[in-house]
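Key idea: predict the complex, not the pieces.
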Amino acid sequence: MSRPAAPLPLLKNVATRLRILSIRSTTEAGSGHPSTCMSAAEIMAALFFGEMRYEVANPRHEHADRLVMSKGHAAPILYAAWAEAGLFPREQVMDLRKITSDLEGHPTPRLPFVDVATGSLGQGLGAAVGSALNARRIGSDYRTYALLGDGESAEGAVWEAAAAGAYFGLDNLCGITDVNRLGQSRQTQLGHDLEQLAVRWRAFGWHTLVVDGHDLAALQAAFAEARATSGRPTMILARTFKGRGVSFVEDKDGWHGRPLKPGQETDAAIAELERQLVDDGGATFGIPAPSAPSTAGAATPRPDVPAPAYTRGDLVATREAFGTGLTRLGALDARVVALDADVKNSTFSDRFEKAFPERFYQFFIAEQVMVGAAMGLAARGAIPFPSTFACFLSRAADFIRMAGISGVGIKLAGSHAGVSIGEDGPSQMALEDLAMMRAVPGCAVLYPCDAVSAEHLVVEAAYHPGPAYIRTSRPKTPVIYANEEAFPIGGSKTLRTSDRDVATVLGVGVTVFEALKAADLLAQEGIAIRVIDAYSVQPIDVAALERAARETKAILTVEDHYVTGGLGDAVAEALGPRGVRLVRLGVREVPRSGPPDVLIDRFGISAARIVAAVKQL
Amino acid sequence: MSRPAAPLPLLKNVATRLRILSIRSTTEAGSGHPSTCMSAAEIMAALFFGEMRYEVANPRHEHADRLVMSKGHAAPILYAAWAEAGLFPREQVMDLRKITSDLEGHPTPRLPFVDVATGSLGQGLGAAVGSALNARRIGSDYRTYALLGDGESAEGAVWEAAAAGAYFGLDNLCGITDVNRLGQSRQTQLGHDLEQLAVRWRAFGWHTLVVDGHDLAALQAAFAEARATSGRPTMILARTFKGRGVSFVEDKDGWHGRPLKPGQETDAAIAELERQLVDDGGATFGIPAPSAPSTAGAATPRPDVPAPAYTRGDLVATREAFGTGLTRLGALDARVVALDADVKNSTFSDRFEKAFPERFYQFFIAEQVMVGAAMGLAARGAIPFPSTFACFLSRAADFIRMAGISGVGIKLAGSHAGVSIGEDGPSQMALEDLAMMRAVPGCAVLYPCDAVSAEHLVVEAAYHPGPAYIRTSRPKTPVIYANEEAFPIGGSKTLRTSDRDVATVLGVGVTVFEALKAADLLAQEGIAIRVIDAYSVQPIDVAALERAARETKAILTVEDHYVTGGLGDAVAEALGPRGVRLVRLGVREVPRSGPPDVLIDRFGISAARIVAAVKQL
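Result:
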């Protein structure tokens, strides 16, 4: 694993040039975080031009070393580094933050060298854990680096990732914390007490080094030591100064998120930096290539998944069918992996673990890193299914938000949705997850009512481009679909229909059965209703909704979810401009413990409530 | 602080009785977590009957010691302890999990001895930090205890709380981790390696003790040592066995969340436990009283807050007015406190800090504990305003969910909402926060467009019973309201109206001004529209909406938020049954960096877009 050490004068000049370009681009943009870039200049120079193996022309190379820029506000220096490496001309960095440029204020995967969007602090290390797990999955020796700030080390998510990195023994993972002492508004909690920070990383099982982050030789030695460390990840704590290199900025308060003023201020800074350029003898760097050629283009096709084998009327919880379907899919596509947060025996992901233990990752009770690692895995070619109780996915809401911005294909599965879980009470009931997931652009939000649809939707989710969410239920429900039925994303199933339907009732999950019961009860009184299983909550089946709007007088939505943001909202958004009568049945207050059937009625989503609502129309 | 040690035989019998009642009640309920209760029996006995000072008849006593049951699934033993203390008859615990009982599956503040709902693991210590800060705020010597599980210690939120507890030097805070080795689905990451866990707590600055959690004398000594420790909190790591006391359950896999079977299995367990009862000589315990009498009933009235002093046309960002308004309110009500996550100079909460440093709490970049501590503070009588960028409140989404279940009055403020922040890019833009906050039942969701309304809404939020959310914007906007104007929750302001309005446009925040511009543009073409500032997104002004629905042909909503779950959803929900034409303008894709005005137009919420939409009707 040894590689030729880059000459120090060259690296020193690279660091200076990165500083200059970070200042110039943020001054030009009129916003941004130059001082945060300046503390990291030697780290970036040592990483990019003395440590990492990559192919400049193909930043997504599947065996190339990765850098996750967890301190995403230092984006300008990341862009400057890629320009320095030759991916694009240096002048292009001057388009920073312009609407016409992909060099955004914080990095996003619109850029080929960004795996996951960063800028919500504390998230990068989780994605790096996923990237490192992926290297193991594909048998690659690529290494993953993550550059953190000291400020963001206050985020609990960092310590979840720390625990996970140690648990998995990820010696292909190396974190660097740019300990520049200053947060946005004040000194960080630990300031320059790097030993205190080192004690924490060691306590979490990492090989931990404290170095002068402006000493290129020390950084090179630290990276070499990290490479030589086996069985655990390494954290390099780099003592740095914010604004390093410009005397009136360095280690001063008040320079977070503030560009230098154009003209004299910027000119003085650049002049001071230019004086720091040394004679490097015209040395050039050679960037080591990845150790294996890229096989990109050899895309794995979507496998032909045989239909499940249920019998109509079988009582099977959708959460169980999820586990079965995921395991069946795993046998056909080696990219499929499962991630758990110590509830595998409730979500049935333990079936996948039994079949494919090497593709099953246990994160214990730490949902943020579970989702963060899934982001890293997805960005590197896996098809990850992180699953837990749906309510606990809200723990990772900010990660899910960033997964949406990243457009990465994480396939979330949340079980135990709604009041139908019963006696465990409101803390265990997901009643806001549909609202959370629908607010992710492009996310497929899927909610099967029976085992057949659940198994099909696992497959649909897997091959949906971008994020997807499958919501499953705790109670057993009868199989109502034929095994061969198709459940395309954006579709729906009309379960009852006639030319006398007075209203259309859309159910999802457990409320499909309440709607069917209501239809039977109303039929006894000569009232016909249309019943639709809206299993694809997002995108919703607009054509079926429009037909229903034309053919029936009103539409009712019934969902085991708060009335806000879920199915009712999806239908209202689709049909709003038509002026259709829309009635929502959903949970309207904090529920409580009790038997599922009692709760379903008490909180307004039972067959009896549907019957009453239809009659009221 | 010394107190009489309770006789050990008595405590031992209490522990046994707590085990018996935990088993009996979960067997009766047919669900629940008896084995998790059994590991904690000695801890609970030593805490409740040898350590804590409280008044059984008044569990909410403001000077009584607190216990936050972070491992909320051990609820039955908490209920059993209060029954043992005499708050209600033991037989009442047999109503566990029934719809008719407040003894829910996981604790909620429906019970007078529960400050915050638990059951989403890893949250309790954050609330305990808030409770301990509150003791300092009111000058009380009450102590706060938090009982954690070892499994939940994988949650990053626990380590955020650990860092905060040490930072604030909370020696009135004592955590106990019931290290019973077994999670739900398997052994925890560290198992019974308590030293490894101790290293972590020490690294985070806590006085840390490792004890045998079934040794009552050791527990008593540990509690005494915690009481004697000054300047930092104490964590007692208690080595225990899940299912302790019943040979066929103790330390065995497969007993998480599983009650014993009625009949033989339960009978055998209880018989085995009853054999563990010892002769306690008929001893009784005396529970020490809080050190100061309760002053409950002396409710602080809502102060008369003088109107702000802006001039119409002044350009003031609502985030700045939030800071000003909060500071003015803080001068009139000592219960008001502010919590920050290192963005005080962007949210303007630094104004409050300058005025009231002792009521300003810095949590650094750790949003979960910021919100968690706010929950604890609110539950103990403070009026806490945690604030950060609105997008980063999603980091605490699960805490906000639990705050809703708890009904505690946290007053969240989120700045930098929407694409109007401009160049920083999507990671910094809150576009799903309205969806998140509207999914909290009873939460007031407030979104001012100018400085006057922002200041008034700070006051309204403060005295709203339960949670509230104020969404503020980055750009400066003109003051349009008179200083004396009232902004009641549930209200709206009609800014343009005529008897010829063809449509009603509802704006909020920055889009109010786009709507006004659109009205001007349309007026030039002889088209009149009604413009409403829907500053109270939840509850929304249904009367104004219904009037608009009667008097105009269609309603448009315009919001700097994704189209899902926000203002459009609120209006659709309110008017759905009427069959009104509703058109939503909102962000429909992941946005990008760029100038605010360009983004507002590009992502569909500008005056020009409103004009086009109105014409299309």
